Amino acid sequence: MGSIEGIMTGFQVAFSMQGILYVLIGVFVGTFIGMMPGLGPISAIAVMIPITFGMDPTSALVMMAGVYYGAIFGGSTSSILLNAPGVSGTVATSFDGYPMAQQGKAGKALAIAAISSFVGGTVSVVLLMLLAPVLSSVAISFGPPAYFALMFMGLTAITSLSEGSTIKALISAVVGFMVVTIGIDAQTGTQRFTFGNVNLLEGLDFLVIALGLFALAEVCSLVINRKDLSMENAHKLGSLRITKKEFKEMSGPMTRQSFLGFILGVLPGAGATIASFIAYITEKKIAKHPEEFGKGSIKGVAAPETANNAATSGAFVPLLSLGIPGSGTTAVMLGAFLVLGVQPGPLLMTDRPEIFWGIIASMYIGNVFLLILNLPLIPYIAKVLKIPRPLLISLVIMFSIIGVYAISFNTFDLYMLLLFGVVGFIMRLYAFPAPPFILAFILGGMMEQAFRQSLTISNGSLFIFVQEPIALTLLIIAFLSFIFPLIKLLRKRQA
Amino acid sequence: MLNTLNKRVSCVLLLLAIGYLVLAYQLPTYPYTPVDADVIPKGLGFLLVGLAICLYFAKDSETQEQKARRNIPRKDIGALLAVFAFVFLYITLLEILGFVVTTAIFIFFCSLFLGYRKHITNLIVAILFPLFMYITFTQFLKISLPPGILPF
Fold first, then answer.
1. What region does A72 belong to: left with phi over 0, alpha with psi -120 to 50, or beta?
2. CB-CB neighbours of A28 under 10 Å
3. What's the rounded Cα separation, in Å, for the pair A488 and A118?
4. pLDDT band for position A32 (50/70/90)?
5. How many Å apart are CA B141 and CA B147, to the nearest integer?
6. Among A215, A213, A274, which Cα is nearest to A86's?
7. Do residues A309 and A261 lie in contact, with contact meaning Cβ atoms separated by under 8 Å?
8. With an 8 Å Cβ cutoff, are B27 and A192 in contact?
9. CB–CB of A163/A491 below 8 Å?
10. For residues A225 and A210, what is the distance between their CA atoms, to the nearest angstrom?
11. Less crowded by CB within 10 Å, the N or C end of chain A?
């Protein structure tokens, strides 16, 4: 099937009644969960996975994609109104969004966020449509060594770009990889680290890890901050209207950041958070009046909001065309694909064009829905933020428990969920980033398989990774992405 | 010797890595397989040992905010432990009493314990939410949740 026919199929899927309905559900739930302080897209996707059981994979994945970009979209609301970003990708939005809210211009800030998110999201879907098929056709020739190198690059990128200490990020990734070695080895049938426990034979389910490390660990933070009254002090919205002059001011950052954000989203390891910060910094640097930033600048809201949404679509490029996630969130998204029996990768476009193109096409509708949800309806939706914390805590725990139980039907996994909740909380306390952990957990199994397949082909010789030009290039990039921050650090120390 | 945080954390990690390595060395190996099941675990174990050593010598570069995050008041630690106990009981009783009953009890008492004082709202949420989820899962999604003592 050619690309044009594929695109047509995609639009047919997206514009069917079922397609529209699931996109709407997805973006609505995503906005809702993304808005909750602390609960980001990872928790949103993980909580929604059990709902998709038994659903047709296309509808389910269209919905899950909606949850993902809906959560990024919704995160801006709590950033602006409460200065409590629901998602790390919207932290930069609060720098200028919250000062605007303090000046009584919360409505305006929300409108700017909604419009720039819409522009960023839509422009990047067009780019996604162009780039994903190209990358798919290149990746189809990749053998196990190239795949191993690609995944290795993804892992090193996320560790070197993580917040804080690179060593801690690496440790987090290695421990995540260790956890995935639990269970029966797929190639030799050896039981590894199961301690004779039948429940561990198949290894731990990724939902146990995702919900434990993210949702439950967040519950712990919510328990500690349960008396935070900021929700009740949320600022009044004020008018949503934007003047022509203001729109003109936004248009520059929106155009630039749509492209920049998309590119950063495609690159492994970067994603929405880094894209939004880079957008904020670059706009501040090139602005005529940089002193306005941080005091309620329109550009300061438009830039990160455009970039984080553009990056979200960008992140779908490697996920759909290579089957390799570049961030923690897309790793959980990959988990959602696998739960539904769909293997994303270079063959997805030809084997399941309805899924490949359906997801991409549905993003156009999703962005329109998000604009509607976030502009006229925002005063009503923002009431969600008034859910009392004690109730919110109990409900998040309930959703996590349902999520894991519905996939495994045994309480052993629930105890494991509790255990990983504790682990996630301790990691937070000691500043070990969790995204490398989940990425390593999801990629670990595939990486080990690709590594061992490569060595089986080469009869045990490691030279196979150097002989294949694609694998070699990717490994060199991985190596450099790792060495550069170290060199920078050393130079800083010497200076 | 263990005067900084990184040093203490690295020791814990080192113990973890050694424990993992001991288990990895007990994995059976088979002849004629170029890469056996123990290769990756052993590699990971040594990698963690190396990283733990790096962390031991790394400077603490924590911001004040990160330090403050660990400063949890005793009362809140108590609350956290209590919530964990609640969740533990929830999981243990889930298959015995059933999803709806256990979840309702959990939501009501957990919210009450965390300081929610609108009892009527709490009660309504605690009953309606689990019921709604139960019906959605068992009737529409065809995923069974433990019925427990309830007849349906």
1. alpha
2. 19
3. 36
4. confident
5. 15
6. A215
7. yes
8. yes
9. no
10. 22
11. C
**A-B contacts (CB, under 8 Å):** 163
Provide the β-strand partners of residue A191. Answer: A184
The answer, yes or no, to whether residue B1 has pLDDT greater than 80, is no
Nearest residue on chain B to A53, alpha-carbon basis: B141
> Per-residue confidence at A367, pLDDT binned at 50, 70, 90?
very high
Tokens, residue A109 = 């800030």
DSSP at A295: S
Place of tokens 């096409």: A361
ipTM of this model? 0.94
The C-alpha angle with vertex B45 and arms to A464 and A268, in degrees rounded to 5, equals 55
Using a CB–CB cutoff of 8 Å, tell me whether A390 touches chain B.
Answer: yes
A23, A63 contact by CB (below 8 A): yes
Measured CA to CA, the distance from residue A411 to residue B43 in angstroms comes to 32
**Can you tell me the distance from the alpha carbon of A106 to that of A77, in angstroms, rounded to the nearest whole number?**
9
Residue with tokens 């709407």: A24
- Contact residues, chain A, for B112 at CB < 8 Å: 390
Closest CA to A139 of A338, A262, A323: A323
The structural domains of chain B, with segments of one domain joined by +, span 5-70, 74-140
Of A178, A224, A452, the CB nearest to B20: A178
CB B60 within 8 A of CB B6: yes
pTM for the whole thing?
0.88
Q: What is the dihedral of CA A355, A359, A362, A367, to 10 degrees?
A: 170
Other CB atoms within 10 Å distance of the CB of residue B47: 17
Token pair belonging to B98: 């059933």
Q: What is the pLDDT of residues B136-151, one digit of tens each?
A: 888 887 888 898 887 7
Determine how many CB atoms are found less than 10 A away from the CB of residue A411.
20
Q: B39 touching A, CB under 8 A?
A: yes
The span from the CA of A177 to the CA of A439, in Å, is 9
Chain A residues closer than 8 Å to B30 by CB:
188
H/E element, A192: strand A191-192
Nearest to A69 by CA among A287, A365, A292, A294: A365
Least-confidence region, from A69-73, A285-289, B33-37, B92-96: B33-37
- Of residues A232 and B130, the one with the higher pLDDT is B130
Per-residue model confidence as pLDDT tens digits over A38-62: 778 888 898 888 888 778 999 999 9
Model confidence at A304, in pLDDT bands (50, 70, 90)?
very high
What letter represents residue A419's amino acid? Answer: L
Going by pLDDT thresholds of 50, 70 and 90, the confidence category of residue A78 is confident
Strand A183-184, strand A191-192: pairing: antiparallel
CA angle, A304 as apex, A99 and A307 as ends, to 5°?
Answer: 165
Chain A residue numbers touching B26 (CB-CB < 8 A): none
Does the CB of B55 have a partner CB in chain A at under 8 Å?
yes
List Cα–Cα distances, B12 to A176, A213, B26, B43, B52, in angstroms: 16, 19, 22, 19, 9
Show me where the domains of chain A are located.
3-494
- For residue A308 the two structure tokens come to 């984080």
